[in-house]
Amino acid sequence: MGSPKNQTTAPNLRYIPLSYSPADSQSSALRLILTLFPDWEGPNNKIEFVRFTDGITNTLLKIINRKPGLTDEEVDNDAVLMRAYGNGTEILIDRERETTSHALLASCGLAPPLLARFKNGLLYRFIRGKPCGHEDLATPPIYRGVARRLAQWHALLPNTGYSSTPAENSTEANGVKEEEDFEVIQTRRPGPSMWAVLQKWIVALPVATPEQQARRLSLQKELEWVVEKLDDGQGIGEDGLVFSHCDLLCANVIVLPSDDKSNTSDDIAPINFIDYEYAVPAPAAFDIANHLAEWIGYDCDYNMIPTQSVRRQFLTEYTKSYIQHRGLDASSEEEIVARLYHDVDRFRAIPGLYWGVWALIQAQISQIDFDYANYAELRLGEYWAWKREFDGSRQASNEEIPLREKRWAQEA
Predict the structure, then answer these.
(1) Which of 125, 154, 189 is at the close of a domain?
(2) What EC number(s) does the entry state (predicted)?
(3) Does 25 share its domain with 115?
């Protein structure tokens, strides 16, 4: 069950030497779109801006030209999305890799075409459809559609995302430098991966106080431990990795209009994914577990965690799609479902560690009105609760099982 080995290099994309400014939002966005499309200026043009507020990292604007006589669908087909990067997010995100990942996906028909880069963001085509809310993710038509689309990603895309050279495979080339107080992890396969991303984030944690220094060391030890336990190459894909979205929260899952029949049947919604800034090779089980963890929403409602039976339904739909796109024998379905079910269970707490570390950094750098510090504690708490189940310390202390772990263990 290997992955495709063809690779792609970074695209030759138009660069606009301008910036978007939140303090001068409409004017700066207007300068960008008129530089991209000079013919949008003048009579018979009516440029409008629609601000999306679902994300908690970037500024996202939909830019439309409501010319006279055009239908809403025609206006949307010409619309542009402008995504401006949040303050300091280059610490968290490799923007060159993001652009290359987007281009790769667009070449496979899995993302809208890229139009241009600018100093602090990207311009690309708009996808018509409706972003999900976190409760939508738990509805069968939508989670079955997500499962199908995610399996298509994992089955068809090369698990590197771009050409890899020996120099690019070094630890430092992945944005991670050796630290004085610890050695960075060495993964089974050199090069980009979600493990390397998490290592980069831990290195970037603040260390201004003794408490911060101790916490970073503690999280580094946890990363070393989980890599030893889980980076075993046993998952589906080449060497246990597939090209993964790694950020399938509700706002990044788009339900396409009902007239789009590319990925639908009577009881499966047509789905596409947006925002590829965290896309990187990862175990399929991580990408799946991460999406299922996002059913809780930003407020971390653990009553929404999918039970065993729901996870089996999701994984069955995923496996059918994976087998179809990989051209595998349908008789292997039961074996793959069982294997994935076990792997997803093993990875169920790693999203909490991943986004908990991420939120600790965001709490220091972000100017967005979101309580990252509290969010970090909630997500890291998921990891610690899982580890206490794993090592038996919760049972030994005769403490009540946390809600997230209780819901995960429920059959129905």
Answers:
(1) 125
(2) 2.7.1.82
(3) yes
Residue 216 CB burial class (10 angstroms; 0-12, 13-18, ≥19) = buried
CB atoms within 10 A of CB 162: 20
pLDDT digits (tens, 9 = 90+) for 364-411: 988 778 899 999 999 999 999 999 999 999 999 999 999 999 999 999
Rg of the chain's alpha carbons, rounded to an integer? Answer: 21
Among the three residues 95, 125, 155, which one is the final residue of a domain in this structure? 125
Q: pLDDT tens across 106-126, in order?
A: 999 999 999 999 999 999 999
- Both tokens of 249, joined, read 């929260």
Structure tokens at 331: 């008789």
Q: Which CATH number do you get for residue 76?
A: 3.30.200.20
> What CATH number should be reported for the domain holding residue 134?
3.90.1200.10
DSSP 312: H
pTM attached to this predicted model: 0.90
User: What is the number of alpha carbons within 13 Å of residue 307 lying toward its C-beta?
Assistant: 6
Q: Tell me the per-residue pLDDT of 81-115, one tens digit each, with 9 for 90 and over.
A: 999 987 777 889 898 999 999 999 999 999 999 99
Give the whole-angstrom CA distance, residue 332 versus residue 334: 6
